Amino acid sequence: VCFNFSEPLARRTDFSPYVAVSGSSETAISNEDQQICVEGLKHGERYAIVLRQGLPSAVGESLLTSADYEIYVRDRSPQAHFAGKAYVLPREGQKGAPLVTVNTAKVSIDVYRVGDRNLLATVNRDDFLKPIDSSRAEEIASQDGAKVWSGTMDVASQLNQDVVTDFPVLDAVGKLEPGVYIVTARPWKGAASPTTPDADDSVQLAAQWMVVSDLGLTAISGDDGVHALVQSLGSAGPLAGVELRLIARNNEVLASKTTGADGRVDFDPGLSRGKGGSAPGLLVATLAGDYNFLSLAQNAFDLSDRGVAGREPTTGLDAFLYTERGVYRSGETVFATALLRDSKGVAKSGLPLTLVVKRPDGVEYRRATLPDQGLGGRAYAIPLLPGSAAGKWSIDAYADPKGDSIGHVEFMLQDYIPERLDFTLHPAKPIIDPGEPVEFSLDARFLYGAPANGLDVTGAIRLQAVEGGELAGFPGYVAGLADDDFTTIENQFSDKVQTDDKGHADLSVELPEGSSTRPLQAKLIVDVGEPGGRTVERTLVLPVRAKGVTVGVKKDFDASLSAGDVATFEAIAIAPDGARIARKGAAWSLYQITNDYQWFNADGHWSFEPVKSSKRVASGTIDIGADGPAKFSGRVGWGAHRLDIKTLDGEETSVAFDVGWSGTASADTPDNVVVTLDKTDYAAGEEAKLRIASAFAGKAAIALVGDKIERFIDVDLVAGDNVVPVTIGSDWGPGAYAVALTHRPLDIGAKRMPGRAIGVAWFAIDRGSHTLDVRLDAPPLARPRQSMTLPIHLAGLAAGEEARVTVSAVDVGILNLTGFKTPDANDYFFGQRKLPIEIRDLWGMLIDGMQGETGAIHTGGDAEAGLEGNVPTQEPLALFSGVVKVDEQGNATVSFDLPAFNGSVRLTAVAWSKDKVGSAEADVTVRDSIVVAATLPRFLNVGDRSEMHVDIDNVEGDAGDYKLDLDIHGPLTADADAMTKTVRLNAHQRQS
Length: 992
Known about the structure:
Blueprint: E1 2-4, E2 19-22, E3 28-32, E4 35-39, E5 46-51, E6 67-72, E7 79-82, E8 88-90, E9 97-102, E10 106-115, H1 119-123, E11 132-133, H2 134-144, E12 146-154, E13 163-167, H3 169-173, E14 179-187, E15 204-213, E16 215-222, E17 225-232, E18 243-248, E19 253-258, E20 264-266, H4 269-272, E21 280-287, E22 290-295, E23 318-323, E24 327-328, E25 333-341, E26 353-358, E27 364-370, E28 377-383, E29 391-398, E30 407-413, E31 421-427, E32 438-446, E33 456-465, E34 477-478, E35 489-492, E36 497-498, E37 504-509, E38 520-529, E39 535-543, E40 550-555, E41 566-574, E42 580-581, E43 583-602, E44 605-624, E45 630-635, E46 639-646, E47 652-659, E48 671-672, E49 674-677, E50 681-682, E51 687-694, E52 698-705, E53 709-717, E54 720-727, E55 735-744, E56 755-765, E57 773-776, E58 781-782, E59 787-795, E60 804-811, H5 812-818, H6 825-830, E61 837-841, E62 853-854, E63 856-859, E64 878-880, E65 884-885, E66 891-897, E67 903-912, E68 917-926, E69 930-935, E70 949-954, E71 960-965, E72 980-985, E73 990-991
Parallel strand pairs: 8-15, 13-62, 24-30, 48-56, 50-56, 58-68
Antiparallel strand pairs: 1-4, 2-5, 3-4, 5-6, 7-9, 9-13, 10-12, 10-14, 11-15, 12-63, 14-15, 16-17, 16-61, 17-20, 18-19, 18-21, 21-22, 23-25, 25-28, 26-27, 26-29, 29-30, 31-32, 32-37, 33-35, 33-36, 33-38, 34-40, 38-39, 40-41, 41-42, 41-45, 43-44, 43-46, 46-47, 49-51, 51-54, 52-53, 52-55, 55-56, ...
């Protein structure tokens, strides 16, 4: 029972004290915008409900007087529905398709069949696996298929209670023919007149799409083709002699094959590469009268929560592109390098490569076809014209100018000022406790090496909600109430702090007071002021420990969820210390949210205001375990929805989501089985030990996947640890995945359905043999306006093996602006990549037909990085060597002419041979004995007068008097006595 109010209700308020219910002790109070609902009332009962005086609104008003209501909750209307979106009823041990009924003793049932040759069009419709209306049922009977049975089924009836009855489809229909059957049901209303149109012509029908089969299908799709696996749902073992047909989206039969003793077939690679209507759309299996199918258009499993990560795998040519830094300004030159290799990381020498540079608006800026400059590498200098557009630029590499890009890199074009100092933040604790000060320290130094002493430290601390309510350490789970819009609270540092003689500072700041049901975090924003007044900023984000137990909820569906689908969720409970704990009897409710409008007349003018209301569409209770999530599901309608979950101890979380009209059918997230290896890197030919920690006895098919499926291993599983030896192939590429597809047989005695779990582990192969150890013999200190010679040595080259190297020298103050990292060609070519296959199966589509009682049937009846800065006051230091050949001993030498510069220079080297790559970096301090730095105004107008701030640091010089001369260039004048000054400096003294 819900009550609507004229104003929005107060947020984050417990309304239980304001609502009194007599006649029941098991009610719960929920609220939504302008609505309060009393839940837990029983049908067929009377209640007295009082809304008490003082009930608060969000606008500061409250209910002036109490309101009394006498409520009678009517009996539930007769209903019938099938549970879930599954379509496969295992052939063994099943009583039938489970039908849930309420307040009816008989249901009208019709059974339709869509034949095998019209199956694909039906599976691809938006209403596949969803309830249908009677007009769609008639369309199936007259156009898509045929009605094969019509009648009624007697069901038990308990007033206002759900009753599950299994419809015995085999008893009704007899022998099943190839195709899909649709069982529709609705409460029986008596026989309809044969001459009178049905009054319920557009009524929604309960619908169960189904096949009855023992054939469990798995499809693994990759660039090497579609691999099909068939297991018995009853025994979990592989099935031989099964005819498998691969059907294209245009309904043509692409191929037909028969499984061997291992229950597998491999379809030719070319068949999986079809486009449009020629792409694979359906896998159909038949065996001695048994029949099943699997849609290849449904979403593949997302296994990212199992460690699948990395860039997209490649099967042809591959290019690694890198620049010497991440940000430039107009008028400067970008030095780009490209390494061209195959999918196994071997250099492709002698081939040209086209580089295309694009502006931020996507318009092509420059194009060049570059010859090989040695072992697949080439360098390209890209001058940026004055006035070039600011923003994110990109470079793409093409082996075929008309083909797809095989390499990509981006850089920023912005005006900027290089940083002159750097500092790091060190928190005292990794997690902040509410009510306690946040303690941290920092260490600052000038980039030319001296401690950044005597500098002001300022900043702020923000208490903010974690974006999206994500629960730290539990990917995919969110916590807190969906409508808890926590407002960020920011406090400035109150204490005045300066760095000491060593550039160190200790700080303690108070965490702002605030509470929320959502996870919170503290963001420290710390600024250290440079001598000229500009500040350098660093940030640190720390989680705030929850005050109590947190309930996390994960959605096991994506944006493809559509009206009529079943939404599945997982729930966990987390203690303040991060440990999983149990919570029994947690209540959940799924609501459909409706936005309506209330019209009103004010001063003779009609207007309206939005009114949000909610309707509960599903509910239940769950036991959350400490060792695994609790799973539950409910059917959704169209539009906005919200899931509420609350434990008996009062912890609660809600999740809001939208449901569209249609989407792509998707199986549930597969259960996880833990798969581990004894090492992370193996040599070719070495034996790896693969451990599968299975929760059940059964069968496992282990797919070893490099850039394609290399081999399968079949294993008999025991409950507990299973160790499987695997010999590493020499042609598997730089790394591979072990994918364990584990299957549990049907258990009729325990009424336990067949099950499957999928586990994944990645390992590198011979990564060490593809790695060059690059050593830069960089001096710790260099002087500006001199040449710096840099010896380079590569270890790991075979005798006589050729190699190349590029070296750059860039101001660390420029690199820090974008957080630029040294290019890592080894990780690019030989690191982990995404799983190159897609896995689909039908274990998430199984109908549990063992829980209800078999019904008595009767034939017949009715028919979803910018950078800002200023123009630098000196020429940026960014030097590049180009491609340099390494001698037979693995040595090379590079020289850089250093300009007038004081700071840190990062030397970055990327080296490569035919099948090896490596990189290294080293920082060199470049400075004069006495460092002079000036802070200049950004701009001056004619007639303006300004003062120049000069910072003088005696880093290495003797104590004494030093003369400072000022040279002026351009249309500027200065007072004569300002052109020369004498400054007395002590050793290691800095003056401004």
